Amino acid sequence: MLKALLTHPRLKMISSPLGLGKNLIQYRFLQPLIQRPLLPRAICLYVTYRCNMRCRMCGIWKQQGKSLSNELTLPELDRILSDRLFTKLETININGGEPNLREDLIEIVDLLISKLRRIKRITLNSNGVPPHRTIENAARISDRCRRQGILFSISVSLHDIGPRYDTISGIKGTYEKVIQALKGMQKIRQHNPFYLSVNCVISNLNLHHLEEMIEWDQKNQIPVNFTLGEIRDRFHNIEMAEGIEINEKDRPYLVEFLRKLANKRKVYFQHALRYVELADMMEFSKRRKLACHYAMGGVILGSEGLLYYCKSSRSIGNCRERSAYDCYFDPNNLEYRQSLIEGKCGACPPNTFNQMEVGRDLFRLFRFLLKGNG
Ligand code: SF4
After folding, report:
1. What is the DSSP string of 309-324?
2. Which of 10, 43, 104, 108 is 20 to 30 A off residue 272, Cα-Cα?
3. Does any ligand 1 atom lie closer than 6 A to the CB of residue 254?
4. How far does residue 344's CA lie from ligand 1's centre (Å)?
5. What is the pTM of this model?
6. How open is the CA angle 267-251-168, to the nearest 5 degrees?
7. In ligand 1, which atom is closest to the CA atom of 288?
8. Residue 341 Cα: closest atom of ligand 1
9. 25: CA distance to ligand 1 center in Å?
10. Closest residue (by CA) to atom 7 of ligand 1?
């Protein structure tokens, strides 16, 4: 079972039994004894809020007018990442907006690799457009990561098939371009292996086409991860709620779909457990039990320098003006963090199940994979 756990194609970003064991001890047994949060080991870095899509469930692009002039420059990032808050970072998620719109994305990656000495994995979220730049950057970043022994993965957004995806993305021709990007990246993986997957955000806009996404996954041999659309201030999508939030009458359909995925434990592996949790939360209003890497030791840095504890958090300070460590460990902010964990985590959909999270929930994952009992 352990061998299967470490070699399963959907678990390529999970590094080693040692790493999982370390996470298990640190977060399952030691952290509950410590009053203060540990230094973050994972960061989500929004390198830009600019985006070339107009997705009907995301309004991050609405900030792009002020985003370009307000984006952290390379020297600013260099200075901010020198802060002691970031000394234990191992996992970097480069996010946006569309990260490939940053002309200096490769320089940012070089900075991360040279600056963060413990770095073990880099993940990049992209919409895949424009394809040529997506493919070129994937080649350059994967080459750097391979040479440095860093695990690299790209998750490309794809929320429906064919022209229907153009309707969701708000831009004609998007689907064809995304497919072009995915095919190009599949080719470069032959020289520089990296993990390539698709992220499908479930919303009212695509609910009844999800089965087709499963067929697409099987046909194209690119794993599709399903995540639940979220409405948050920071995503500037509150007025888009109608397209995102699953209608009451459609909830049983979604629950059934998630349970169907959860039953395919050999295919979806750790994500099958995540799908059970999502189904239980929707069907029985159960509170979330799965780990969250933000609550364990994660942080978000916005493209304008604002720091957040997690995707549900308010800003806890501006790293342009104050040390990131001081923002993170400010007593008032820590009090707010505690109220966030006690108040919001229980209803927060688990949309990731990464190395840190798998480590903390290792026993539960084993139990689930062996007996189907989550
Ligand atoms: S609110 Fe959600 S993202 Fe934030 S720490 Fe809790 S579970 Fe994690």
Report:
1. SSTTPPEEEETTTS-H
2. 43
3. no
4. 7
5. 0.93
6. 75
7. 7
8. 6
9. 21
10. 345
Distance between CA 198 and CA 125 in Å, rounded? 9
Measured in angstroms, how far is the CA atom of residue 312 from the centroid of ligand 1?
Answer: 6
Measure 313 CA to ligand 1 centroid, in angstroms.
8
Atom 6 of ligand 1: nearest residue by CA position: 345
Would the CB of 292 count as within 6 Å of ligand 1? Answer: yes
Domains along the chain?
2-371 (3.20.20.70)
Cα distance between residue 295 and residue 352, in whole Å: 13
What distance in angstroms lies between residue 292's CA and the mean position of ligand 1's atoms?
Answer: 6
CA 119 to chain centroid: 17
Which residue among 278, 341, 357 has the greatest number of ligand 1 atoms within 8 angstroms of its CB, and so is best to mutate? 341
Q: Which residues contact 208 (CB under 8 A, 6 or more apart)?
A: 253
d(CA 27, CA 8): 23
Let me know: does 1 contact 369? Beta carbons within 8 Å: yes
List the chain pLDDT tens, one digit each, 374 residues: 555 555 555 555 565 778 888 888 888 888 888 878 999 999 999 999 999 999 998 888 887 666 778 999 999 999 999 999 999 999 999 999 999 999 999 999 999 999 999 999 999 999 999 999 999 999 999 999 999 999 999 999 999 999 999 999 999 999 999 999 999 999 999 889 999 999 999 999 999 999 999 999 999 999 999 999 998 887 888 888 888 889 899 999 999 999 999 999 999 999 999 999 999 999 999 999 999 999 999 999 999 999 999 999 999 999 999 999 999 999 999 999 999 999 999 999 999 999 899 999 999 999 999 887 66
Could you tell me the two tokens for 89? Answer: 């970072």
Residue 199 near residue 225, CB atoms below 8 Å:
yes
Rounded-to-integer distance, Cα 327 and Cα 209, Å:
43
Q: Which of 292, 328, 353 to mutate to test the pocket of ligand 1 (most atoms within 8 A of CB)?
A: 292
Place of tokens 């688990």: 350
